[in-house]
Amino acid sequence: MYLVVLGIGGKHLTSGDSESQPLAPARSVLSFGATVAAFIISYAALMSDYTNYMRADVASYLGLLLPTASVQLIGAAFAASLSSNPSWMAGYEAGGPGGLVDAILSPSKGFGKFLTVLLALTQPATDNLGDSIQGPTLYSFSISSQVVLPFSARVPRYAFSIAGTGILIPLAIVGSTRFEETLVDFLGLVGYWSTTFIGVVAVEHVVFRRGDWAAYDISDWNTPKKLPPGIAAIGACVCPFGLIVPCMDQVWFTGPIARTTGDIGFEVGLVLSGLLYIPFRALEKRVFRK
């Protein structure tokens, strides 16, 4: 799909009107970067659901990074060329990203309309960048529900997927009139949590497991008595929000620090959660011996 878009519209790509478009301030760049990072980094909590049959030394993240980065770069190239292509600008103003795609594909007439309709039909199962996300998310939702509520393991997983879809539909209806703003706000919130999660997992692996995959006894995964209680991890994820909140820059809230620096809640959460986890986990191991 995006290769066709690039093939048809590629010859009209420009560097934009740099003279009339001032450079974005560092504050805006940081905030935008945090949103983009939040989109991709949120998969960190899901990847174990889909890579457990792969070797530990396989760089599975490349399978997510390469296609996502390429699509985002294509989108950035066309966005930078909007000011030089009035028809593209009109399409974007009328229909957002979908209108832009329709305007780019308009020279191909019927075939372009077909691809635009195809993109619209696949939208419920994808995000605005075209990457499949709802299916994996609902699958992980069903697994996570059974982990958090062990007694629900007897319930078929598709029941949780149906329940999750029931939750998504009304939220999607409410957010449909403000899709882009709603998506950005949601990604920001997900990003803050994801970074603290990654900070904890990374420190556990590097510091306490010495980077050794053999240090994990996966046979204990469903034996709570042999697993750490998780108090250190929860504390290291929650405590950083005391500093993350002042560093947030969202449509609905801008913290006092973010007014000067832009959104650095992402970076602060990543570093602070990792630093806090070291003493928290050391104390937890001493008290619980596991």
From TrEMBL:
This is Purine-cytosine permease fcyB Short=PCP fcyB. One of its GO terms (molecular function) is transmembrane transporter activity. The chain crosses the membrane at residues 29-46, 58-80, 158-177, 189-208, 229-252. GO terms for cellular component: plasma membrane. The keyword NADP does not apply. The keyword Ion transport does not apply. It is a multi-pass membrane protein. It is found in: Membrane. It comes from the Eukaryota.
